[in-house]
Amino acid sequence: MNKLINYRILGISLLAVSLLVPVYVNSVHAQKVSINGAGATFPFPLIDTWRTEYQKVNPDVNLNYASIGSGGGIKQFTEKTVDFGASDAPLSETEFQKAGSAVHIPETLGSVVLAYNIPEVTTPLKLTGPVIADIFLGKITKWDDPKIKELNPDVTLPSENIVTVHRSDGSGTTYVFTDYLSKVSPEWNQTVGKGKSVQWPVGIGAPGNEGVAASIQGTPNTIGYVELAYALTTQMNFAAVQNQEGNFITPSVNSTMAAVSAETSTLPSGSESWSNVTITDPPGPDSYPISSFSYLLLYKDLSTNPTIDEQKAKAITEFVEWAVTDGQQFAESLGYVPLPQSVVDVNEATLKSLTFNGNPILTN
Amino acid sequence: MIKDNRTKDYKSIIQERVAKNSFKRKVFNNFMTVLLFVFVIIAIIPLASILFEVFKNGVGALSFEFLFSPPGAFGSGEGGIGPAIQGTLIVVGLASLIGAPVGVLAGVYLSEYSSSSRSFAYFLRLFNDVLTGIPSIVIGITGYIALVLTLGSFSIMAGAFVLSIIMIPIIARVSEETLKLVPNTLREAAYGLGLPKWKVVWHIVIKGSKSGISTGIVLAVSRVAGETAPLIMTILGTSLFFSGFNSPVDALPLRIWRLASQPYPEAHEQGWGAALVLILLILALSVALRMFAQKRSTFKSTT
Amino acid sequence: MPPKDSKITHAELVKKLDLQSRKSFIGDKFFKGLVIGASVYTLCMVALVFFALADGSVPIFMKEGINFVIGTDWNAVEGRESFGALPYIIGTLVSSTIAMAIAVPISIGIAIFITEMMKNKLGTILSFIVELLAAVPSIIYGLWGLFVFRFWIRDYIEEPLHNTLGDFSLFAQAPFGLDVFTAGIILAIMIIPIITAVSREVIKAIPHSQKEAAYALGATRWEMIKTAILPSSKTGLMGATFLGLGRAIGETMLVTLVIGNAIGLAAIPTSLFSQSQTLSSIIANEFNEASNDLHLSALIGLGLVLFVITIFINVAAIYIISKVSKSYSNLRE
Q: What value of ipTM does the predicted structure carry?
């Protein structure tokens, strides 16, 4: 009987702890504003850094970002269950209509690199778009295929099978990569197409960037695509890719910057549709061809979402303004590309146009 | 004495013949014994390896900060799993608040009231077994459709609801079995004293098999505490502490899953640390379960 | 014996008893209502699962019809949507078959070992350890599988098999460690404790007289097991096997981490070391990212297919077990 009583005490105390802790936490944070966002996994490391860094700037604002994927971000944003959404792909024309008054805020840039593991090869490989497409279509199956040899005359390539690695979960990285392949290879465009999850003809699917990278590192003769951020931190080998002007460009923060500068002159204003914006395969001699914006999605009039009050609207706008200006300093160390000034200017104008019940939010 | 000698004689004769006829059989017998022993070893190696790896890789991550603070910036290896521990406690606690009474009462029906409607009891038992067998991810989809989509947000309530569906059939089954162990003489004695049925059931049958029922509840709790798939679709996961019953919350299995798919060794170490915390939590429950089970068996033997 | 000075008249006594019984009648009604309510709630949960899945998968069945079950294409790209579940049904069956081929003999062997050969303390400890394995959450199996075990399998099992028997198509593909074979083995490790626990109970239930009869006829211990234990527990062991199969088919996170996650036609395994995909793993992979309504409906449709398969298996298991023993129930988990 004594034991039973002990269990009861244990159970009651566990229950009490689980109920009291939230009460305590709530009372501590009572004065704080919580901003809820959801969406793309691609910028998650950066947004997660902003979460902790912005705490230092403005301790009264709690940022909560769930990386559920771009599709989920758009869905939650449209259904108004979040305060902001995030997506690696701009809203398509139909999505833009459905969402009502949405604005796009490009908050960072990233590149997708082709990482490989061929033990015999130490010098960086050179690849062209069509060759990459053929590899991922399963048409080029050996590393010493004449098409690869032709591009890398100085490299001795092994006569081994190529193992391709792709993402198994739906992902913005996949969208950017397949968007590029669709532009450079008509056959890819015809048979596979672009999307956050596509029907891969060959290869291994691994969950997340980590899964892809681990699969590449763990097995010889593999090739796969990961974010530049990750390739840099794990020191993987990655290929130089030929751009529109025929130059082979090694992915880096600078070559991504070159890509975006080549395209920014054509950016629409924040409240227009961005469905045609893409910076893959850009012009310019130094542009790396597989790069992309990542977007924050905000309501043009924040009172559209009934759960946003005036105080929260102000907090959201101020946070985003901080993110696209001061927040950019954290991008480079994580392998993201800081926004060029021209894009920041577009963003500033967009943020100034945001309203709450028709009144502008940023007054200064 | 004589008798003993004779059995010995028979025994030795038989043994001799058996030995003569079947040296092969004996070898085969020994071979099978060894083979079965090898099977046992094969089964134990993974357990040993899992426990070893979890402790080896996870123990370094444990600290006060790790247990009580929210996750730090992505890949920094700072912060901890405080929200995940809190979230697991809240979601599993709420799920038990729904699942335990419903499960126990359904068990009471099967054990005490089923004689009034045999076909209903048959269906209840069948559906209960079917419910036990439904994969948790399918139940997760149900929770997403029934609660997340209708309420408009990922929430603690959806997670607790989904876990309670997994708990109910386990608790109902174990409750039914333990209630049936209560000897009928006890019931009859209570009826003889003029007690109405509900008092007999409540004061004699249920209270008499409290430890058995608790076993079922602990079993169910330790099962759902490790569920991952249905939680992805209902509570989503977050980096914040509890902030309301209709907002997302974190849970240990979810946090392990997220940490494991981050590209940094620091995150993996935290993932192992979270796995260690989860294993300790569930092992503690299992040990408690065994204590209850022993209690139950003493009850069984005294009656 | 009623006290002599009792002043309660007969009529009063009847009234009082009537009142009391009416009270208990109300109490009884209320409690019975509560108990039946809980039972109906349980039934409703099964109905809810079924209707949620059926309702959610209407759009995909409207579009694809029977093709959804027998098609091999899986394309979520806007404008060319096409969804067929067959590769994942096959992937599910293949990985579960591998798991069962490994787990069933080992589990039944362990059950026999513990009940017949280790009747001492060590046997108790062993069964405790095996039960502990059952309590380890599958996500931890997955973590261990991804970071530790897949390298063992690749280096010590798959590479040697591929190098020596690579001429057979079964072992032809270059092994990678993330494939249907690895998934099958880790699934086996996960379900061994479940099958063992039920089998142990089934074997325990065999009357001693049977075993003694076999020994009396001069059987060795193995012959006793073969002639006395296995035949009379056959159906019970079948039931245990089915329960394990149900768990293997529904397992999600563990499989997602190690099976290689191929898509569409590529997910149909052509060798033991092929990448594949199961019904539950593709749901977990794509569910949160599916922004397109048809894609979401297709994933819910996969859930419905999975639901139907597991119900079929569980009903078969329940039927077989109910024929043999009723003592399995505590051990189902």
A: 0.84
